[in-house]
Every structure is written in C-alpha cells, then in structure tokens.
Amino acid sequence: MEWYHRNGPYEILLDGANIAFFGGGNQPVFRWGQVMRLWDVVAQRHPGKRMLLMLHRKHMNGPDARAPAVEAFLDRLQQQKAFYYTPHGSNDDWYWMYAAVRARHQGLLVSNDELRDHIFSLLRPKHFLKWKAHHIVHYTFTPFQHIPPQLIYPPAYTSCVQQLRNGTWMFPCAGGGD
C-alpha cells in the first residue's frame, strides 16, 4: 500500500466492483454508469472530502472501460489521485478495508457488501462488526436514470445497550423523546 501512504488518507472509499455489479442478478454485468453516477452523488453530498474509488485491475480490460465517458471519468480521478486499481491476484476487498480502517472515525465505505466472508474468517469479530455498523454507507439505484442513487447512511447512534465506565447504563430510545 505504498501508493496509499504517498497519496492518502481518504475519508470516503467506494467499492467499485460492488457498485458496478449491483442489480445484476444471475447475469452480472459490470456497469460503469452506476459507478460514475454514485461517485457524483457522493461527491455532491460530501464536498471537500477526499474520495477514493478502488477497483480490481481486471475491470480495466473490458470494452466498456474504453468508452469515451469512462476514460474521461477515470482520467479525472487519476489526476486527482482518487482512483486505485488493485493488482492481479489480489482481493480488492483487502485494499479498501485497509484504507477504510486508516481513515479512522471519519471514514466511510460506500458498499452493499455485508463482508460476511471476512467476518467469518475473524476469531473475534466484535470490533469489526462495530466498525461495520458505523462506517458503511449502503446505496440503491432505481431503473430511472433521472433519479439519482439513494445513499443509506449508518445511524448516528448505536441501537445497543451500553454501560459507561462510571457504571451508568445507556438505553437506546426510539423517537426524539427523553
């Protein structure tokens, strides 16, 4: 992750493959249009935040990657140092997870990946599950191009009962009441 150390940190990471394949069903198709639309929505909602699109190198070889709009989009991101593609033989998940953890408390990951395979591989997933609950922004697309993708942010507060260091218990409460 030498590249990341030279160019980071980033506050918002986008899981490019997850976004591109969203809604593909049994016939997954890589959709650059979804990546570009979601990038624009996130950038509008978070002006001034450093964003990074991460994607496996193999997706750069498809015919759609050579479309003029896609090439212009990727050129712009590369000039901004906002695009990183992972090398052959690597799982891109590990790269965006590393970058998301490096972003610490203010970091957000835009992905619908539930990370189940990573959770199952951990001996103690408690801290990872807490991180996941507070840092992953989910999204959805409609079939209508004129309607922008919707972002679903993690809740500002946990829904878990907590005990503070002084022994006080905190219980979540629905609504804006006491």
From TrEMBL:
Keywords annotated in UniProt: Hydrolase, Metal-binding, Mitochondrion, Transit peptide, Zinc
Top-level taxonomic group: Eukaryota
Gene3D superfamilies the UniProt entry points to: 3.40.50.11980
Database matches in Pfam families: PRORP
InterPro entries: MRPP3_PIN_dom, PRORP_C
Residue intervals of the PRORP domain: 2-173
GO BP of this protein: tRNA 5'-leader removal
Keyword DNA damage: no
GO cellular component: mitochondrion
Listed transmembrane segments: none
GO MF annotation terms: metal ion binding; ribonuclease P activity
Localization (cell): Mitochondrion
Family from the record: Belongs to the PPR family. P subfamily.
Protein name: PRORP domain-containing protein
